[in-house]
Amino acid sequence: MMTFLKTILIVLLVYYAIKFLFKLAKPYLIRYISKKAGQQFEQFFGNAANANTPPQKKGEITIETMPNQNRKQGKKVGEYVEYEEVE
Question: Membrane-spanning residues where (predicted)?
Answer without folding.
Answer: 6-25
